[in-house]
Amino acid sequence: MRYIPHTPEDVRAMLEAIGLGSIDELFEQVPAELRERARKLELPAPMSEIQLEKHIGALASKNRAAQPDTISFMGAGLYEHIVPQAVSQLLLRAEFLTSYTPYQPEISQGTTKAIFEFQSMVSELLDMPIANASMYDGAHATAEAALMSQRVTRRQKVFVAKSVHPEYRHVVQTYLRFQEGSYNEFDFDAKSGRIGLSALQEAVTEPDEVACIIFQTPNFFGVLEDPTELVAWAHAHKIMVVACFNEPHAFAISTPPGSFGVDICAGEGMGLGVGLAYGGPSLGIFACREKHLRLMPGRLSGRTVDSQGREGYVLTLSTREQHIRREKATSNICTNQGLMALAAAVYLSLMGKQGLRELAELNTSRAHYAQELLSSVSGSRLVYDAPFFNEFVVELPSSAHSVVQEALNRGILAGYDLGRLNADWSNRLLIAVTETTDRVAIDRLAHLLAA
After folding, report:
1. Structural domains of the chain in order of their starting residue, each with its CATH number
2. Which of 162, 231, 353, 360 is the most exposed place for a label (fewest CB within 10 A)?
3. Could you tell me the pTM of the whole model?
4. 182-209 burial: b if 16+ Cβ within 10 Å, else e
């Protein structure tokens, strides 16, 4: 009975209390074919420890590592950046690795200060006055931004650009699924790849019911947006503007979202020292204007002084309601992402302003070299003509899926097949270039495409 919390007597008593005769009656809304109670699961026989190790090893050997076994041009939201060894070593320190939410500041000064430094760096990178910590990932942060906009404006409708990462759009839609008519989308320009005010105005018929507009820069196709007109129009109608992002390195050399006057920034920080690891863990980034501070989700570390004038750090403006009283909470985030925030803080400290700028310039330079070379291959063309950072879309004379498969056979992850999202894009390949991809690798991909 060790792993079974309820005895048969417990179950009978609970069913009687709610007026039901059986467990099946409790779950009768679930289709019968989806219930497993009456069918034995077809599981393999148990293995010994040695057998299991060999089995897992055989499965693992089927994977291909992005480096050095395979050249990777994959992006589409998660980007391969070099993580300095110092980041990993500092994360392994016991006082950081084992720490949890610093509820008791008197014994959590190191963790709380690390969060404060992370917030400060994010604020500077995005040109926003306030940043928080402990968002799960970019998609979650974007969805929380939509909910926060609804709280601030007391309006329900959310409009999301179709150039926002599709998974981000799905998560926002999931968060709003029980609010009829709240989730809406507007299109982007097919030539430039950028959002435009005319498309938004066509989609928004009742501006006084709109809580926020969400766009992404660089967007899912790598294009850098210029939302100046959109932000001005939205604010004229008291609509909040949310800028989301996948690639924060772009803001080292391009206009950060805060400089456009957006109300909330939300995005993915995995590239800032966390590193790719089978898709996670991620690091959600969230920043807003000071006037909306009290309605912001997540944790916020503040700096103060004690009665003796000594510097101290403490979680602030986040009551226990945030964690235990769901109906009164601004959010129900319960996991502390402090370790990932620390990784980003260490990474940004090591890079410094100049180093981050030089890295962004290197990414841009290599991406533009790749774009010129790959779009010059016979039958290929660059799809969008607006400025981009380190990712772009090329249309091929044949199926992108077939190119991806052939490239994989030759040790190259050629990019993301956009035909997976839209049948009309079956010949389009989304290609990302970072500091891990040198000119030799780019030339190899060009020769493959030419062949």
Report:
1. 1-38 (no CATH), 71-83+353-450 (3.90.1150.10), 85-347 (3.40.640.10)
2. 353
3. 0.88
4. bbebbebbeeebbbbeebbeeebeebee
